[in-house]
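pinging the channel bc i need a second pair of eyes. not urgent but kinda urgent?? the chain im working w is below, pasted from the shared doc
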Amino acid sequence: MKAMSPTRGSENIEVARITELVETSEWFEWMREELPKGGINLPGEETATLFVVNSVRYAERVREVYKHLPSNFYNLFIEAGIIHQCWNKHRTEYKHLSQNPDHQFKFTGIRALRCLRSFNDHSHVMDGSDGNRYIVKFPKSDSETLLATEALCTEIARMMGLPTPRLNLVAVDRELARDLGISTRGWPRYMLRGDSYQCLGRLVESEVTDQPSRKMMNKASKLLIGGLIFDILTANGTERMPAYRMTESGTEPFFLCDKSLMCGNWQAFIHPRSEDKIGNVTSAVDVRSVDQLDVWIKRAQGIDFNEVWKLAFEIPSEWYGGHRMLLTNVLCRLRENAIVLKESVNSLIHLGHFPYLKRDPEMASNRSSLRLTA
């Protein structure tokens, strides 16, 4: 048997290498097109190449073992291998970001005992039967989705790791409400269930200020950027400055999430117009690099929406006007926003909403140079 010449051997190796590169490139394009449709983040180029190579080699080993493998099965093996590796990467990345699975909103059967102060006909400071003090809001016919908006958005912000006030369901009996001038007659009409009003209660913070302490300034800046990503996710177009509360380590911002999901206009949130703002970008001046944005985008995309759905169908129907299908559409839209959140942020970057974002001068004209990596 004639030995293969070194030249012929090196040529075969080079052909095999080129063939592998072409196949890898084709599968990388498949990942670009198909993974986002399933809500899977596209990994970085080097990681994606590694996943493709591993999957192709796995399919080749299967074909060698069985001597024959139909081309459609061969492709399915590679697709399954890529998706499996992407999912494992996703699970590993978000493991350290996972929050307490028990949502913060608790239905503990609190009843309002007395009213201490009224800000207007909608917000009242009341003592609860659990010994805490709450700012209580009543469900009204002229703002059907207001309470559900605040409850859902507060939970989403908390799952992203943003400090939020504690919420609870507070029942206010008819007699106490009547003393406040609240009744089911006239317009706007207050929504009564049985002998009590099912109200949203926000725990009153003991010490609140409008500025963070000096040693908390860096943390406050990071949280404000997180609040910016939250606003983009929930399509909040209004300016909202956080309050600051005392903690053991100093003051920190906490976010009152009562102005989101297109400011309670759920129809506008579900069907946004091109001229509508995409989030509040007043905190964008604090952004110096894409890494500051990327960490919060990952947190937003790592939200367990199963928990959000559970909360949505536990809250009283009076908080969203009983429009169950509308609530369902809002949650679906919110999940879609999370999937395309990275693209939304990239759009804002290229529209110039982040004036101090560091860019590579040589790559400034290349749109892909500013894309956030998974």
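so The mean pLDDT is 76. and The chain has two domains: 6-95, 106-370. — does that match what u expected or am i reading it wrong
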